[in-house]
Amino acid sequence: MIPLSWYMSLAAILFAIGVCGFLTRRNIIMMFLSIELMLNAVNLNMVALSHYLDSMRGQVFTFFIITVAAAEAAIGLGIAITLYRSRHTVHVDEVNELKG
Amino acid sequence: MFTLIFFCYCAVMIIGSGLLAIIMRNPVHSLLSVLVLFFHMAGLYLMLNAEFLAAVQIIVYAGAILVLYLFVMFLVNIREELKMDRFVQSAWLSRIISIGIGFSLIAILPAFVLGEKGHWPLEAIQKATNTKALGQELYSTYILPFEIAGLILLIAVVGGLVLAKRNSSTTIEKS
What is the rounded CA–CA span in Å between residue A54 and residue A58? Predict the structure, then answer.
């Protein structure tokens, strides 16, 4: 039997990897992909807790998180296409019109 | 013993392919390593007796979301991406911040206290099968969040159509 804390440590490491990817990459599509990594870390936490707490609640919420992740990918990639169409770049540090 | 080896294998593959995903230069290679990550995540779900979620993970994440990412990646120019710097200028600060987040999350783990046990012990789930147990919870206790999730998907469909539609007035201006 694997201890619960191992799963939660793995989820924490994966979340930190997602944060690192979100903050360091310039490509907006890679930033969205890092958000998916963070959502997956939360999913892993929820499923592990659901198993160790004898409850279905975590799995139900993981189901909803997967739904929201699909919606977020659709809308976010739509925004990325619109950005590429208007600015001809997907690099977030070149989109700096709001910088004074 | 087998579960320990399987968990260690999945953990190493998840961390390794996650790191590769945020480091690799070519975005298509990063997407493929995220695909590997999703498959090993599904393996961990199987180990945690969540068969339905393992299937959903492969079908929705690996089958739908990653294919969507790949299509969008082919719509934008990735030739340019291969020659340019792939990290922002202050990347080292961001790396220090994320390492700090990871260490602090692991450091506060011993202070975590489990809540009270639920009504679905392993034997009951195995007797009713995982999918049936999930469906019973989903359609009784969580029926309102389920309908809100349907609404979110509707908004995503409409929003994706509106955002990706070529605006007719701007095309007239260009021509």
Answer: 10
Q: Render pLDDT for A11-70 as a digit per residue (tens, 0 to 9).
A: 999 999 999 999 999 889 999 999 999 999 999 999 999 999 988 899 999 999 999 999
**To probe the interface with A, which of B1, B7, B14, B123 has the most A CB atoms within 10 Å?**
B14
The ipTM assigned to this model is: 0.92
Which residues lie below 8 Å from residue A11, measured CB to CB, with a gap of 6+?
Answer: A41, A42, A44, A45, A48
CB contact under 8 A, A60 and B134: yes
Which two three-digit tokens encode residue A46?
């929820």
Residue B140: closest CA among A62, A60, A49, A46: A60
Selected for mutation to probe chain B from A8, A22, A25, A39 (highest B CB count within 10 Å) is: A25
pLDDT digits (tens, 9 = 90+) for B7-57: 999 999 999 999 999 999 889 999 999 999 999 999 999 999 999 999 999
User: Do residue B106 and residue A12 have CB atoms under 8 angstroms apart?
Assistant: yes
The CATH classification number of A28-89 equals 1.10.287.3510
Of residues A15, A71, A81, nearest to B105 (C-beta): A15
What is the architecture of the domain spanning B1-84?
Answer: Up-down Bundle (1.20)
- The model carries a pTM of 0.91
A94 interfacial to chain B (CB closer than 8 Å) = no
Q: What are the residue boundaries of the structural domains of chain A, listed by start?
A: 28-89
Q: Is B6 on the interface with A (CB under 8 A)?
A: no
